[in-house]
Amino acid sequence: MNEFLLGLKLLLGSGRGSRARFVLMTAGSAIGVCCLAVMLAIPGILSAQDARKAAREPDCSNGLGACISQSGKGLALTRVDPYGTEPLTRIFVAAEGVSIAPPPGLRALPGPGEVLLSPKLHDLRRADPNLAHLVPGKEKGLISSEGLAHPGELYAYVGSSRDVLKGGGRLSEFGAAETRFPTVEPSTLDILRFTLAGVVLLPLTVFLSVCARLSAASRLRRLAALRLLGLSRKGTQRVNAAETVTAALLGAVLGLAMYWVVNQLVSRVGLPGFKWYPSDGALSWSTLLVCLAGCPALAWFVGRSGAKKAAANPLAVRRSAVEKPPRLWGLLPLVPGMGIVIGYCAAGATGHVPRETSLSAILMPVAVVLVGTGLVLTLPILSRSLARSVARVTSSLSLGLAMRRNEMESGGALRVATGLVLLVYAASLTQGVLIELDQVSKNTSPVQLYTMTLDDMDPKTEQAMTQVSGVRGHAVLASSWTDPNSEKWPESISAVIATCDQLRRMASVVENCVEGRSARLAIPDYANNEFSKAGRRFPFQLQNADGKSRFETIQVPSRTIRYHDDTATQLAGSGAVLIPPSALPSGFRPQTRATLALISSSDPDTVRSVLEGVAGVDPTIEVELDGVDAAALQQITVIKTLLAVGMILGLIIGVAAYLVAATDRAVERRPQVTALTLLGARPRTLQAVQVAQVVLPLTVGLVLAVVIGKMAESSYLVTGGGAVFWDGDGLPLLLGAALGVVVVAALGSLPLVGRRIDPELIRRD
């Protein structure tokens, strides 16, 4: 305790410079803790949203997921459709005469002809009258925040009758253990945590360590003086830790206050694709403990390790002895990490993609951490080796001075360049995650395909669907009948029931089509159905409007039509049979696995218009959009936003680490700069020395970060199981960012050489 009080007295009585250093250490710790709190709050926000989603889940709805109860007397039907780039969730309920507790956010369930909307959906419905087709009924109120995942959610409860919801599931209550549509899937959440840890935690650890080591040289001399006066080794270390721990603890409190302000402001504005309630961002007790105890603990560890030199050999510190060169053990983490990365890259290049995902899930994070740690520890070794080599061959005075200084103080490169180097390394990894997410199924074709089952759809409804505004083509897709009790592999073919004119409206290539005649569809570069051979016969089960069924045998024709459409998966497989509607008995249509296919432009406004038109015919019908998964695309948007937040935090931490370390190094070097000035060195020469000292190790580190980062990115893509392993699209941006970092670092080094000469700084030398 006495040593701790002595450290505080020295802090308060050591002059304006020490107090300024303390303020800088506190501010740096506050920024670091605020960034740490932001990162640790993200899982809590996602968990709170998923908890509210689970609390409102119907226990059984149209067969999706497991039913909690089959004895419910109500009916529920869930529909999730894209509305622009956001998912629109509609819960149709029929609970007249049944006592069912309403879900959170509602006082009572809507009756037939009534609808309850989320606030944002309420505003959109007023701005877009056609949206009433998707959420029909008289608006009876709004869903409160307890029943919504986030303020911008599009959610509705639509009251209906039992006759309309014949295909709905039995409903007895709301609430489930887990939600069927989580904000982020658990597997994707693991990727997000792993990426944010690399983007934020690694630079944050370096930044907090830099803040705890401010003015290390002057503090070491002061501690060495105390040691020479008789203070014990442990006492010397505790005196040093007093200042760093106090600054870290005060900074942690300020950082948590900063986070509270940021959470209150940003949650009310929202981020692109990601919004939350302020209460969701409240920090848990475990997070508070990590911030309030972890930061001071790190400062204590760094302070004790930094004071070991002064405690063990105070005379060497007072006489400014030359530092020992960095040991080669710093390469140890880099070697195994690069071994794993190179191994995966080689496997991807040779076509031997690893299939054991559980092993890759362990090795890949380990490799990223080892490579990142090795990159940090390798910088002093590379900086010293390069500085020695350049100093031997250069004839430039400024470059020679700079290189000799880097050779003597190779640890300075670690403090100045590490934050920015790790930022570039993390940016490359983040790009790999974004590439993998972009491989998720989504519609990239110029047309949009809609499919609806013909079960329980009468001919009038089918005709109305084909006349919806925006639809430019339609056809009926069916499969031949197979015996469900047969033990043999079912032999079946697909059929497209349409005229040649309908087919041309659906496809971009239709050659050799004759109106009224059947033909096989031949799609170039697509494998043909092995059962679709000319002359073979297949039965098709048909049904009319009265419910009467009959079988019609279709013979596979020998004539073919060259066919290709612009959908993501092709409307019908190669070998499908085109059947003219006139070839079927009057009033009959396919019954077995038959769907109505509509096609339109993939323009978002057109897609929204078609969905609204379809809902105007039947709001409860289930529409499948080829290549579009509204929930998955929403997850990708959330992930991209959170990764952008991580990159912004990494940028703040990296730039802050550079500014703090570069400024501190310039202040520490004032005695040497003053001595060189008194010896006749010009200001331009000193500025060139300062720039070279910073730019050289930074350039080496950035080149290493770009190369290793791209290799780590490629190995991550190889283990991701996607189709893209090597991507060079982001390389120019990465190189441009690295070049910008070097330019900013060089310009930031120029003002750090003072113009005023103060001989007092070197009087002791």
Structure description:
With 765 residues, this protein is of the alpha+beta class. It has helices at residues 2-13, 16-55, 119-127, 186-212, 216-228, 233-269, 285-312, 314-318, 334-349, 357-393, 397-408, 411-438, 459-466, 500-506, 604-617, 630-668, 670-678, 683-720, 731-749; strands at 74-83, 86-94, 114-117, 138-142, 154-159, 169-171, 447-453, 473-479, 494-497, 509-511, 519-522, 537-543, 549-555, 560-564, 577-579, 589-590, 595-601, 624-625. The strands form three sheets. The chain has a nine-stranded mixed sheet. Helix 5 packs across helix 7 (285-312) and helix 18 runs antiparallel to helix 19 (731-749).
Produce a short descriptive summary.
This protein is of the alpha+beta class. The protein is built from 19 helices and 18 strands.
What is the fold's blueprint, element by element?
Layout: H1 2-13, H2 16-55, E1 74-83, E2 86-94, E3 114-117, H3 119-127, E4 138-142, E5 154-159, E6 169-171, H4 186-212, H5 216-228, H6 233-269, H7 285-312, H8 314-318, H9 334-349, H10 357-393, H11 397-408, H12 411-438, E7 447-453, H13 459-466, E8 473-479, E9 494-497, H14 500-506, E10 509-511, E11 519-522, E12 537-543, E13 549-555, E14 560-564, E15 577-579, E16 589-590, E17 595-601, H15 604-617, E18 624-625, H16 630-668, H17 670-678, H18 683-720, H19 731-749
